[in-house]
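Run: sequence + zinc ion -> complex structure.
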Amino acid sequence: MKVDETGEFRAALLRMKKKLSGPRLVRQNPPVSVATLDQVNEALRRLDDDSYGVCTGCFMVIPRGQLLMRPYADTCSDCAGRKRTPAPVS
Ligand SMILES: [Zn+2]
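>> structure
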């Protein structure tokens, strides 16, 4: 992914990181995100090593719309769904 395409994701991740790192006194309403600081840091690391936006499950590019909703996503919706509800082996 080109830098100009990832810039907005980086900005979003940095905003999340700031909120997650800050004092927990203020409850966000509605919650900004259900991401953990680990997930956000991991996504920032992937931006730096150029693997951002690629599914860690099937190595397909994660759709942009999905990244806009969850900038910290490391799997596509298919793989994320598979993780949550493992399909029976047939
Ligand atoms: Zn996938």
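>> summary
The chain has a mean pLDDT of 84. Residues 55, 57-58, 60, 75-76, 78-79 surround zinc ion (CB under 6 Å).
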